[in-house]
């Protein structure tokens, strides 16, 4: 008599599904990051004049929205077990293409379609090469980022091309704008919508289960018939698209076509993920943590600016802060090492 061996999910052979990895964030698990956010808010309100003003709060939410949007795909990629060093280039691509093409009278819908196709191609390159050829995503995404940078610089004659962002994005990111009866700029509401979409994807969809399964243990996930290459490609496409989305709306804030505007988002997008508590080893964390991490990084940057520190010193202190946060709260064993 043959035994009917089932998968961990109870399905028979040939019908197995990826094991659902526990990942919901408990109140206790979120407490350190929420506490850090509250502590920085208290420090800023005591030491920085005008920190509690309505205009400053709105400004921090707007800046946090740019970072949070750019870090959305980065979060999923890191949970998957990868990393995306092309984020700075995709943000710059979104800003430059939007502003330059719009100044050349290209309809906005065509610009968005072009950027959508660019995001899909970039994601396929990043995810496909990394997973199919089993190359480290750090090297692959860094190389793809250089390809994007070189292509954009050639297209704009070394960055000499000028452009103007569409009025819709300028209004969306204006600090004085409001979303109907809600006294917040529309960019903040766009970020709120993105938060809802990404949280639903990671918690309630097959793609989310596959991302966490591969991040927890790629070998076990493949035994459970998780499509590794397809999942990597889809996740990196999402990362490319959220980076481009951040660049598109950032063009409305900056008002022009500056490819280097995306540079800070390479370090800061990873910082937001790490500070939020998502493991760089994959399989643990999520976007809800990154949302708080984005606000923490924005608050800290605002405080350092309030002290009159220059940009290099800000980056130095931000780096020290990240190391301290990871040393204190990031010492939990990786999920794959637990029984």
Name the structural class.
mainly alpha
Number of extended strands: 0
Mean pLDDT: 87
Name given to the CATH architecture: Orthogonal Bundle
CATH C-level class is: Mainly Alpha
Order of helices and strands: HHHHHHHHHHHHH
User: Shape, please?
Assistant: globular
Q: How many helices in DSSP terms?
A: 13
Q: How many discrete domains?
A: 1
What is the rounded distance between the termini? 32 Å
% residues in beta strands: under 5%
**What percentage of residues falls in helices of 4 or more residues?**
55-70%
The largest sheet, given as strand count, sense and whether it forms a barrel, is: none
Radius of gyration: 21 Å
Question: So what's the oligomer here?
Answer: single chain
- What name does the CATH topology carry? ABC transporter involved in vitamin B12 uptake, BtuC
Would you summarize the structure shown here?
With 339 residues, the protein is mainly α.
Protein topology:
Elements (H helix, E strand, L loop, with lengths): L26 H21 L6 H27 L6 H17 L4 H25 L4 H19 L11 H7 L12 H19 L1 H11 L1 H6 L4 H27 L9 H13 L10 H20 L4 H19 L10
Helix pairs in contact: 1-12, 2-7, 2-8, 2-10, 2-11, 2-12, 3-4, 3-5, 3-10, 3-11, 4-5, 4-10, 6-10, 7-8, 8-10, 11-12
């Amino acid at each position: 008599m043959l035994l009917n061996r089932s998968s961990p999910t109870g399905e028979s052979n040939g019908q197995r599904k990826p094991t659902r990895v526990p990942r919901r964030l408990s109140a206790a698990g979120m407490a350190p990051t929420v506490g850090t956010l509250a502590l920085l808010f208290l420090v800023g309100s005591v030491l920085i004049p005008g920190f509690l003003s309505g205009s400053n709060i709105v400004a921090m939410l707007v800046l946090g929205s740019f970072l949070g949007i750019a870090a959305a795909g980065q979060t999923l990629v890191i949970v998957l077990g990868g990393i995306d060093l092309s984020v700075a280039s995709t943000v710059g691509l979104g800003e430059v293409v939007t502003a330059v093409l719009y100044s050349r009278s290209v309809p906005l819908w065509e610009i968005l379609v072009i950027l959508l196709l660019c995001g899909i191609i970039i994601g396929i390159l990043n995810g496909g090469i990394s997973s199919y050829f089993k190359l480290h995503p750090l090297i692959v995404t860094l190389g793809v980022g250089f390809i994007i940078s070189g292509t954009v610089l050639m297209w704009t004659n070394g960055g000499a091309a000028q452009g103007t962002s569409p009025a819709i994005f300028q209004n969306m990111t204006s600090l004085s704008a409001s979303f109907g009866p809600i006294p917040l700029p529309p960019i903040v509401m766009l970020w709120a919508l993105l938060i809802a979409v990404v949280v639903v994807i990671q918690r309630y969809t097959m793609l989310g289960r596959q991302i966490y399964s591969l991040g927890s243990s790629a070998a076990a996930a493949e035994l459970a018939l998780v499509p590794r290459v397809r999942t990597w490609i889809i996740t990196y496409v999402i990362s490319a698209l959220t980076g481009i989305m951040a660049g598109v709306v950032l063009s409305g804030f900056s008002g022009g076509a500056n490819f280097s505007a995306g540079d800070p988002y390479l370090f800061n997008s990873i910082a937001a993920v790490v500070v939020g508590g998502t493991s760089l080893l994959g399989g643990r964390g999520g976007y809800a943590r990154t949302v708080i991490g984005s606000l923490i990084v924005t608050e800290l940057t605002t405080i350092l600016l309030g002290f009159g520190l220059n940009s290099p010193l800000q980056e130095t202190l931000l780096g020290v802060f990240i190391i301290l946060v990871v040393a204190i709260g990031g010492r939990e064993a990786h999920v794959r090492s637990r029984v």
